């Protein structure tokens, strides 16, 4: 029985197009590692399936639904979290055997990995529309920001008179959105929730859970200012 086409996917024939990388992540070292990995995969030097020591493999369908746009995704996008790869390797998306694939470093930070998986998945739905890698990356990021970092939720963590953010709070914010803290700041700046000065200041924060604040206690008549005084006191 034929599979039902997901409602947010458009039919697209990849049968006449070869194996190729769609979008690289990271700098030169990461891209070089990606090219080496993909060349080895295509040449049969290593196998991505079945899943096991080489990679953990899952489907990206939940991510496709979460993003919510009707894009020309290849059918059955798979995510491969690769083990024992070059530490400089970030990730890439690719068409392999006429299927969409997302490859990321399993050893990377969990929030960074989540962000990269979402970004690369979207790139597979946009790459036939954007010929330039720069434009593809920018548009993919825009859709991810809209899906993962909605205005109301980002705004709830910032205020225009806040000049510093404790490390533990930056970590909590990153974990709430499941993306790296700098990505939250980039989104907040783009939405004009924070200004340039705040952005530069907050970018120096090193998200950490090592030093949690003392427990917070509230009286019935306690105000939000009491909480902020404790959180942003710098103690």
Automatic annotation (TrEMBL):
This is Uncharacterized protein. It comes from Dyadobacter beijingensis.
């Amino acid at each position: 029985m034929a599979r039902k086409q997901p409602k947010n996917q458009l039919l697209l024939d990849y049968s006449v197009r070869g194996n190729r990388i769609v979008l690289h992540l990271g700098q030169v070292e990461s891209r070089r590692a990606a090219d080496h990995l993909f060349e080895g995969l295509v040449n049969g030097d290593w196998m991505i399936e079945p899943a096991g020591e080489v990679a953990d493999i899952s489907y990206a369908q939940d991510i496709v639904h979460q993003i919510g746009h009707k894009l020309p995704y290849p059918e059955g996008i798979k995510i491969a979290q690769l083990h024992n790869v070059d530490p400089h390797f970030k990730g890439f998306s690719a068409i392999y055997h006429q299927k969409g694939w997302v490859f990321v470093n399993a050893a990377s930070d969990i929030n960074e990995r989540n962000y990269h998986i979402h970004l690369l998945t979207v790139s597979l739905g946009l790459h036939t529309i954007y010929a330039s890698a720069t434009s593809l990356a920018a548009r993919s990021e825009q859709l991810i920001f809209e899906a993962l970092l909605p205005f109301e939720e980002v705004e709830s963590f910032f205020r225009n008179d806040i000049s510093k953010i404790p490390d533990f709070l930056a970590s909590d914010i990153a974990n709430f959105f499941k993306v790296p803290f700098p990505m939250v700041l980039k989104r907040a700046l783009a939405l004009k929730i924070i200004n340039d000065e705040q952005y530069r200041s907050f970018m120096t924060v090193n998200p950490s859970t090592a030093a949690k604040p003392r427990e917070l206690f509230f009286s019935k008549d306690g105000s939000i200012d009491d909480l902020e005084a404790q959180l942003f006191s710098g103690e």
